[in-house]
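Changelog note: in this version the structure field was regenerated for every chain. One regenerated record is shown below for reference.
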Amino acid sequence: MVGQRTVEVADVFDVRAARALSEAVALLAAGERVIVDCRGVRHFEDRALPLLAEALRDRAGQVSLRGLGEHQWRVLGYLGGNLIWVGFFEWTWKYFGAWLKLEPVTDKGIPILMPGLLMIQATSLIVIVLLIFFGANKDTRCRMFMWFHRNLRLRPGRMTAGYQRQHSRTTAIETVFLIWFIYLCAITINDPRLIRYDSIAAMVITVGFVIWGLYLANKLTKIRGLGAAFRYAIPTGNILWLPIEGFSRWGLYPEVWVKPIEYSLLMAGVLVVFVAAGVVVFRSAEPRTTGAVAAA
């Protein structure tokens, strides 16, 4: 018979506790389940959450978390979504592009789209179909899908009574699709065979993304509740990232984020801000729920 055990975590969940928990999770037998009870934790260290997300990624379905606040669930989902994108999506396309010996798209001898980006571009229709499937979900709480339902007068059906959302899983899926969508937008804008990176149309679209992102940022400041605000911040940040990257292609500033050694001082400052924001998030108290969550 498949066993199930509960691991209680109390006081401070730090790097040492995360590593110990990761080792215990790695030793799980096939089919064995463990419930990690965090209701006794009074403080989560921001450095410990990525280690926890990494450990849970390969044990989906075997590990459940109890007692985390919604904002902590969403942070785990965000970390999990980024790990899934980088580990399973981006690198897969990159190596398949090299394996298939695809030639990059160039303009005046300058590589514009590398083989990995061409592989992502080939998934455009797949993303559209998947978004239609997700949008048809009658229990969705995604603000974008709900906007389409409301303005296009779509009626997927009545929401399921008592439906409990899995905040971590939902955030992970949204993170993956948002990164995917922004990649496709950037590829389409930069592709010299389509819009072309130095065209007037590309400039207009990029400025449009700036306006859209600032509009969302303004709405973000009015959202109450750390969990909801964090979820709304994910698309806001991704949408604003496209013009940030686009402006660098126009020569307004170098792509410092791909040269962390060369711009070590600036990147160190960004890291400090990120860590400080993480500390604020995890020290913020929100009402806790005891439902299990499918992390990452």
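Spot check on this record: The chain has ten helices and five strands. The first strand starts at residue 4 and ends at 13.
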